[in-house]
């Protein structure tokens, strides 16, 4: 696909669904092809559905503008209430997403030989607090993805000869190594991602949210 292709109008039902999602301001997983034909995926809100120059577009909360016939899949995510729900008293999805970003930041601080500052400790204390207004999925996912990209960059520039360098963790300065902390980031993040998936399935089953594919 390239920028010269003619616009192919989408089905009325799909168009109506996009407008509904824009009205609800619900975060969605949006998969689409850009004008060069490259497939992309973002988590964002649909801010607007509009027509211009005989074509129709969506504008996403991340700033992306996508022609409707280039949308591959639009899957609505959980609303704010579902994001922070605690079915059976378990931790919320919002907590897990915020904890993934925060724990990576803290563990990287230790891995790089530092200690936590007061801002990091305060962030840790607030991880389970939705905030006012409550944090939305798109922002929490962006933070988690950014933290993951940061740790991948650290891994790329880490000298293998330094992996067994000693490190100290927490106010008790418990002994560890750079390798131990980097490994813990991987297994700890994977565990919380699994909990996100499980809790999301439980919440979806309770509120009856179905996937919506283009």
The average pLDDT score comes to: 91
CATH architecture of the largest domain: Up-down Bundle
How is the CATH topology of the largest domain named?
Four Helix Bundle (Hemerythrin (Met), subunit A)
Order of neighbouring strands in the sheet with most strands: 4-3-2-1-5
Mind telling me the CATH superfamily name of the largest domain? dinb family like domain
> How many angstroms does the end-to-end distance come to?
18 Å
> Which CATH first-tier class of the largest domain would you pick?
Mainly Alpha
> What is the N-to-C order of secondary-structure elements (H for helix, E for strand)?
HEEEEEHHHHEEH
Number of strand segments: 7
- The poorly predicted ranges are 208-214
Q: Portion of residues in helices?
A: 40-55%
Class of secondary structure makeup: alpha+beta
Indicate the proportion of strand residues: 15-25%
Outline type: elongated
| Radius of gyration based on Cα positions | 21 Å
Biggest sheet details: 5 strands, antiparallel
- Count of alpha/pi helices: 6
| Number of spatially distinct domains | 2
Question: Could you name the key traits of this structure?
Answer:
214 residues, alpha+beta, SH3 type barrels, 2 domains, two-stranded antiparallel ribbon, 6 helices, 44% helix
């Amino acid at each position: 696909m390239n920028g010269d292709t003619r616009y192919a109008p989408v089905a009325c039902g799909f168009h109506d669904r996009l407008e509904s999602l824009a009205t609800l301001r619900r975060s969605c997983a949006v998969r689409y092809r850009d004008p060069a034909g490259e497939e992309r995926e973002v988590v964002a809100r649909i801010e607007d559905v509009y027509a211009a120059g005989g074509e129709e577009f969506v504008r996403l909360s991340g700033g992306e503008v996508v022609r409707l016939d280039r949308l591959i899949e639009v899957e609505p995510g959980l609303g704010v209430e579902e994001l922070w729900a605690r079915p059976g008293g378990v931790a919320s999805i919002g907590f897990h997403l915020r904890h993934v970003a925060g724990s990576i930041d803290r563990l990287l601080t230790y891995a790089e030989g530092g200690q936590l500052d007061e801002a990091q400790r305060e962030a840790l204390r607030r991880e389970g607090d939705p905030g006012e207004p409550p944090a939305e999925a798109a922002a929490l996912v962006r933070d988690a993805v950014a933290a993951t990209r940061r740790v991948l960059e650290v891994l790329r520039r880490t000298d293998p000869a330094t992996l067994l360098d000693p490190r100290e963790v927490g106010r008790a300065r418990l002994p560890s190594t750079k390798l131990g902390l980097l490994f813990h980031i991987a297994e700890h993040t994977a565990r919380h991602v699994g909990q996100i998936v499980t809790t999301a399935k439980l919440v979806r089953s309770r509120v009856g949210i179905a996937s919506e594919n283009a």
